[in-house]
Task: inverse folding
């Protein structure tokens, strides 16, 4: 039996995560024209911050109640992660202060670290053109995944299991609902920010650089700085999506593993598909595409694909139901991308024109400027 | 110092990378797109090869003969007659070509006609990659495929490896040499030679080079550029297929894992692109050299680093090494190995070496 409330809430959480992630990609790829095929690595920064740093902070804050020193708690989060975090999470369920501190910490640190990684990644972005850059970023993401996976101080001793995340919403009594509210609130904030950013002078400058670097340079704009800023903003937002995802017990489960948070299909190519479907550089298009695709495909399929395989009796024609479910998602994302490229290459809501000051107001503004400058 | 066993497995791995990089470069030079689906074509070919070999073995009532025979070069094990392996090579090549041509004619060509930019083309190759992966997911767990592959070859479709059925030689001194080592090394050399002859000694080669260098001018001269591009796709698909065939028999070589819908394509894709970029993306011979370089570097540079740092898990970081080589290439020699050879200083050095036919042939 389908639990409707569960389906709706999980789908909403998926939509919110994908909106933030796709909007982040849109700043880089849509607005500024940097083909970021390594988007997953910035998302992963959020997951690492939650699993490692926020986990350590939460453990240190509740160390007194567990009878260990703060330093010991700091070490034990990585050394004996699963056992120790289980104890920490029990205490966290009764300590709203430590939980909120961990959330706020992750919300501040993840975008900073994500932005820092974006800044580093912008160095090749300044030197390379189009397709070379795409390959470079894709390869960077893979290399970073391998590094993180086997570097025990970051991801613990068992790379396949990963790190248990701090259960920072347990104190509310309804962790899944509240973490979904948290994700949706973040997504709405990002939406409002993107709407304003798109029409701001820097948003227009980003698009000017994308359309014609030489003209932008000719009128004295620093192209290198624009590309760097776009990488920093987009990557910081992607890290934020990673935080929201990792804190959500429905989406991420109770742990973060490198294999999952660096997943190219989930965190690089799905956002690309959504962005192209919505319309590159079109914030409302991206929002609409995420809601439509999320509600119709991602949510229901990821949650109910196994039930669907059973309902269709795929085993009758010799297909393994478990793999049918996996294959279905890949076929759908592939077919969706191709359909958009063939029939709607500009997306469902093409890039809107910039909202500039109406012509009638310009004399007024000139008047104003004159008055201020006697 | 150099372990022969490590050397042979690395050579197999490096040849696979050389074949894949060559295919990627061929497509980039003609269609101007980095084909993300390329390593997946090898997996399709590997499954096709395994399936046809299994069907052939069953219908011809072949039983693997794993008893070594004593010969003058040592103990040679030939599990199956040559026709069995030939079936595999042909099936792998044909399916590699078919999968590549479907990609070109069904997806990329229509998109090119609609004026899609490089980003859209790249995304389209990704979409094709996903669809192929999904097809393989369905294929390798299908009941009929399971039963076909398990009898008589006893293969597991989700973790495909035919290493046990490879020809092997154990010399008098007790050295083990895999048949695939000889096959892959010979294939890489033969392919380079064949491509050289094709490109520089035939009319088709001249047409191909002209179409790559300047498509509109080539068209004006009456060369069917579209057909030349299709030939490039056929070559690319065939090399991907051969790489898949090698992977099938060499699943313990270097970083080659047993074949499934995702592995080893998902891991190898970075190294294959690295080989193509290090080779200089616009040079066919550069891509072969680049693939070999990356293949050997991933093993030997990691070994060296392990010896220096004493860190036992260093072998996990093989792909970080190839990534670092790509970064260095892009920053300091963006046109890759081929560009280094074409630099004025290298030209001056090379011109001192007497090579017969240089005056007539001439490099690009």
Result:
């Amino acid at each position: 039996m389908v639990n409707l409330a569960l389906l709706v809430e999980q789908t909403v959480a998926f939509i919110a995560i994908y909106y933030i992630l796709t909007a982040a990609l849109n700043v880089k790829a849509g607005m500024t024209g940097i083909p970021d095929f390594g988007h997953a690595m910035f998302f992963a920064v959020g997951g690492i911050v939650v699993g490692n740093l926020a986990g350590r902070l939460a453990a240190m804050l509740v160390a007194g109640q567990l009878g260990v020193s703060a330093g010991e708690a700091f070490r034990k989060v990585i050394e004996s992660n699963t056992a120790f975090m289980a104890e920490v999470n029990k205490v966290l369920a009764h300590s709203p202060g430590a939980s909120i501190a961990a959330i706020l910490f992750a919300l501040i640190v993840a975008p900073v670290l994500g932005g820092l990684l974006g800044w580093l990644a912008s160095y090749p972005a300044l030197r390379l053109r189009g397709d070379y850059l795409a390959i470079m970023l894709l390869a960077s993401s893979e290399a970073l995944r391998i590094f993180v996976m086997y570097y025990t101080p970051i991801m613990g001793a068992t790379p396949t299991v990963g790190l248990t995340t701090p259960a920072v919403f347990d104190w509310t009594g309804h962790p899944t609902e509240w973490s979904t509210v948290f994700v949706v609130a973040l997504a709405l904030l990002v939406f409002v920010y993107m709407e304003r950013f798109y029409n701001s002078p820097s948003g227009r400058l980003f698009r000017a650089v994308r359309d014609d670097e030489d003209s932008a340079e000719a009128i004295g704009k620093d192209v290198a700085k624009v590309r760097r800023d776009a990488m920093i903003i987009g990557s910081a937002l992607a890290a934020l999506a990673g935080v929201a995802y990792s804190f959500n017990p429905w989406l991420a489960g109770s742990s973060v593993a490198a294999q999952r948070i660096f997943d190219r299909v989930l965190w690089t190519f799905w956002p690309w598909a959504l962005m192209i479907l919505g319309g590159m550089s079109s914030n409302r298009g991206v929002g609409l595409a995420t809601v439509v695709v999320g509600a119709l495909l991602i949510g229901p399929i990821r949650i109910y694909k196994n039930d669907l395989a059973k309902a269709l009796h795929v085993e009758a024609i010799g297909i393994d139901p478990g793999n049918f479910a996996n294959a279905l998602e890949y076929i759908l994302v592939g077919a969706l991308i191709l359909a958009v490229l063939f029939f709607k290459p500009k997306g469902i809501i093409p890039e809107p024109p910039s909202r500039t000051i109406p012509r009638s107001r310009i004399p007024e503004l000139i008047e104003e400027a004159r008055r201020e400058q006697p | 110092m150099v372990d022969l066993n490590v050397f042979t497995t690395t050579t197999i791995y490096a040849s696979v990378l050389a074949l894949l990089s060559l295919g990627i470069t061929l497509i980039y030079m003609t269609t101007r797109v980095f084909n993300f689906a390329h390593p997946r074509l090898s997996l399709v070919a590997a499954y096709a090869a395994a399936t046809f070999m299994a069907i052939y073995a069953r219908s011809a009532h072949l039983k693997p003969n794993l008893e070594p025979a004593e010969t003058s070069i040592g103990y040679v094990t030939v599990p199956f007659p040559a026709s069995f392996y030939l079936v595999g090579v042909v099936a792998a090549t044909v399916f590699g070509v078919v999968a590549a041509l479907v990609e070109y004619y069904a997806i990329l060509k229509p998109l090119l006609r609609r004026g899609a930019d490089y980003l859209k083309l790249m995304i389209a190759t990704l979409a094709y990659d996903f669809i192929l992966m999904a097809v393989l997911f369905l294929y390798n767990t299908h009941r009929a495929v399971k039963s076909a592959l398990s009898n008589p070859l006893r293969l597991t479709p989700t973790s495909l490896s035919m290493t046990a059925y490879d020809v092997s030689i154990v010399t008098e001194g007790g050295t083990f040499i895999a048949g695939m080592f000889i096959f892959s090394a010979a294939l890489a050399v033969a392919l380079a030679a064949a491509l050289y002859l094709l490109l520089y000694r035939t009319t088709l080669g001249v047409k191909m080079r002209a179409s790559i260098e300047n498509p509109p001018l080539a068209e004006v001269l009456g060369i069917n550029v579209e057909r030349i591009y299709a030939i490039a796709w056929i070559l690319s698909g065939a090399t991907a297929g051969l790489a898949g065939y090698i992977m099938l028999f060499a699943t313990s070589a270097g970083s080659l894992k047993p074949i499934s819908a995702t592995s080893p394509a998902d891991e190898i894709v970075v190294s294959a692109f690295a080989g193509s970029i290090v080779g200089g993306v616009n040079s066919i011979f550069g891509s072969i050299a680049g693939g070999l370089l990356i293949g050997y570097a991933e093993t030997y540079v990691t070994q060296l680093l392990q010896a220096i740092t004493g860190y036992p898990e260093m072998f996990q970081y093989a792909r970080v090494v190839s990534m670092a080589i790509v970064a260095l290439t892009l920053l300091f020699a963006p046109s890759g190995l081929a560009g280094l050879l074409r630099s004025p200083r290298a030209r001056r050095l090379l011109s001192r070496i007497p090579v017969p036919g240089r005056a007539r042939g001439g490099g690009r």
